Amino acid sequence: MIFPMDASRAVSAAYSGSFSEPASRTLAEDLRVKLGGDPSLTVVFASSSYAPYLTDLCEVMTIYGHAPLLVAVTGQGFLAEGAEYEAEEGFSVLGLRHPGMRATPVALLREELEAEEEPATWHGITGLGPGDAAGWLLFANPNVLPVERLLRIWNRAYPGIPVWGGLAGGTTEGETAVFLDRKPVEGGVAIALQGDIGFHVVVSQGCRPIGDPYTVTGADRNILYTLGAGSAYQALANAFESLSDREREKAHGHIFVGLAVSEYRDEFHQGDFLVRNILGADPSSGAVAVGALVRVGQTLQYQLRDPESAERSLRQMLQTEKIEHFLTRKPLAALVSLCAGRGKGLFGVAGRDAGLIQELFPRLPAAGFFASGEIGPVGNVNYLHGYSASVLFFS
Fold first, then answer.
1. Fewer beta carbons within 10 Å, N or C terminal of the chain?
2. What is the 3-state secondary structure (H, E, C) of the chain?
3. Which residues contact 92 (CB under 8 A, 6 or more apart)?
4. How far apart are CA 159 and CA 162, in angstroms?
5. CATH of domain 207-305
6. pLDDT on residue 4
7. What are the per-10-residue average pLDDT scores of the chain (395 residues)?
8. Are 351 and 314 in contact (CB under 8 A)?
9. Cβ(177)–Cβ(214) below 8 Å
């Protein structure tokens, strides 16, 4: 398929309501008209209640939207251009038409992940070498694929190449689905984007550091024993005491650990950490269990998640992205993966994250979903996140 070089375009749309084949057909046809031709890539984000109808929806988008490559994923909500639809029936879609881009899909199987780890083997499975893609889209069913293992393999096979995406979600296991073209994929799908396409990912983890940074001096797998010269529990208590009275009232269940992405910093700030859950704490032994494997020598600082920090972090990172990449040119489109724990549950109102993207990038075609885990890089390494906003800009 060959387009004139000025034909790059993206269009997004959303439909709120129970599945309707006529309404979906109208949306698909309108999308293609606004694109001015056939899309190079179509991405659909559907509410989990749409799982029984995804075959039909993908069929409609393929036939009437002329989508040669389509990926669809369920979530606990969806979004498009400034609006978020939490716990609503419906779907959003982004159609991307870009003459200089090639998209190569790879179905991911659990058996391959369990058996194959070597980068060269994965180059053979995907048909792509370490520098062949500008970036990867990745959608996975967390009930089937061990995604953190997958990302460790991917970081070795494709070092420094950004991966954006998220985990499918649903109220039940049967409502969790990933589709490639018109068929369900049991594990997940990765799509390599190659050629003349800009691929820029922003990950805002929605937390700010509290207390002091420490060196891990005692740990066994995911159990922290000592930080610096004291216990991990005492450091946690000190971080809690550093909060204001108002912050302490709201801190229960919102304190996390942050593992420094790079040890080579004189000071650590918001965004310098990989944020993980605290699973439990024992004041008698001083141990703290966390949702990550921890090693002695790492730098760790406790983190507070609150709506002000989450909004400030995303705003700052989007503004930095705009200055670094989009002062003299416009982005083509955005894809957004939001934690299902954000939205109204965090901010008290709907649409805060999607609205902020539209505020800083007006009229930018955008689509996305509320995921069960968000995927994106911190530094040059790709991770699975929680409570974050992961935003991919095409250019």
1. N
2. CCCCCCCCEEEEEEEECCCCHHHHHHHHHHHHHHHCCCCCEEEEEEEHHHHHHHHHHHHHHHHHCCCCCEEEEEECEEEECCEEEECCCEEEEEEEECCCEEEEEEEECHHHHHHCCCHHHHHHHHCCCCCCCCEEEEEECCCCCCHHHHHHHHHHHCCCCCEEEEECCCCCHHHCCEEECCEECCCEEEEEEEECCCEEEEEECCEEECCCCEEEEEEECCEEEEECCEEHHHHHHHHHHCCCHHHHHHCCCCEEEEEECCCCCCCCCCCCEEEECEEEEECCCCEEEECCCCCCCCEEEEEEECHHHHHHHHHHHHHHHHHHHCCCCCCCEEEEEEECCCCHHHHCCCCHHHHHHHHHCCCCCEEEEEECCEEEEECCEEEEECCCEEEEEEC
3. 12, 13, 14, 15, 44, 45, 78, 79, 80, 85, 367, 368, 369
4. 9
5. 2.40.30
6. 38
7. 56 96 96 94 96 96 95 96 92 95 93 87 94 96 93 95 95 87 94 95 90 94 96 96 88 88 68 87 96 92 90 93 89 96 90 96 96 93 92 96
8. no
9. no
Q: Domain segments of the chain: what residues?
A: 9-204+310-394, 207-305
| Spatial separation of the C-alpha atoms in residues 376 and 382, rounded to whole Å | 5
Instruction: Give the residue carrying structure tokens 């090639």.
Output: 102
> Considering the entire predicted model, what is its pTM?
0.90
Which residues lie below 8 Å from residue 253, measured CB to CB, with a gap of 6+? none
Other C-beta atoms closer than 10 Å to the C-beta of 158 total 25
d(C-alpha 136, C-alpha 151), whole Å: 11
End-to-end CA distance of the chain: 20
Query: Looking at residue 5, what is its pLDDT?
Result: 39
β-pairing verdict for 77-80 and 366-371: antiparallel
Query: Do 150 and 177 form a contact (C-beta atoms < 8 A)?
Result: no
How far, in Å, CA of 214 to CA of 210, rounded? 11
> What's the rounded Cα separation, in Å, for the pair 293 and 274?
12
pLDDT at position 267: 67
User: What is the predicted pLDDT for the residue at 264?
Assistant: 63
CB of 300 closer than 8 Å to CB of 257: yes
